[in-house]
C-alpha cells in the first residue's frame, strides 16, 4: 500500500510539473483574450479532453507500441529521462524548452485563429498539454503493463486535467493575482522537479539495461 501511495504521488507530481497548469494558464489567457466566456470554456474543455484521450491511448497501447517497434523498457526510460530532464533544465533556467514552446505555440495560435482554425486541438492539446515530454512521462509510468500502474497513470492525468480546467476558467483572475514573478517562480520549481524525475528515469533505465543486457542477463 505504501509503494502504491508513493507511486500515485510520483505520477501526479510528474504530470503536474510537466504540464505546469499555472504557466499554461497564462498562455491560455493570451490565446483566448478575444473570446467570450462561453467560447473560452468550450476551448478549455475540448483542449483538455483531447489531451486526456491522447495520453490515455498512449498509456493503454504503450506495451503494444513497444512490441510493434521492438522497443525495450530501458530504452524508453533512457530516452524519456533525457527528454524530461531537458524540459526541466530549460524551465529551471527560466526558459521554455522548444519541445513545449509557449511562444511558438502562441504564434501558431494567432495564425490558426486568422485562418478560423481550432486552437483547442493545436497548439493547446498538442504540443502544449500533451507534448512529447508528457507522453514520455505517461509511457514511462505505464510501460510495465501492470493494470494498476496504467489505471493510476490515467487517473492522475485526469485529476490534473480537472485542475487545469479550473485554472483556465479562472485564468484572468489567477494571472492577475500571481503576476509574472509568481509564474516565473512556479515554473522554476516545476523545472527542478522535472530534472530530478528525468534523472531518476535515466538511473532506472541504466539499471534496467544492465540487468537486461549485462553479463549476468543470460
From TrEMBL:
Membrane topology per record: Multi-pass membrane protein
Q: Which family does it belong to?
A: Belongs to the UPF0056 (MarC) family.
InterPro entries registered for this protein in UniProt: Multi_antbiot-R_MarC (IPR002771)
Descriptive protein name: UPF0056 membrane protein
Q: What GO CC terms are in its UniProt record?
A: plasma membrane
Main localization, broad class: membrane
Where in or outside the cell is it found? Cell membrane
Its lineage opens with:
Bacteria, Pseudomonadati, Pseudomonadota, Gammaproteobacteria, Vibrionales
Q: Looking at the record's lineage, which domain of life comes first?
A: Bacteria
Species this protein is from: Vibrio astriarenae
* Membrane-spanning residues: 6-31, 43-69, 75-92, 150-171, 183-203
Q: Report keywords, A-Z.
A: Cell membrane, Membrane, Transmembrane, Transmembrane helix
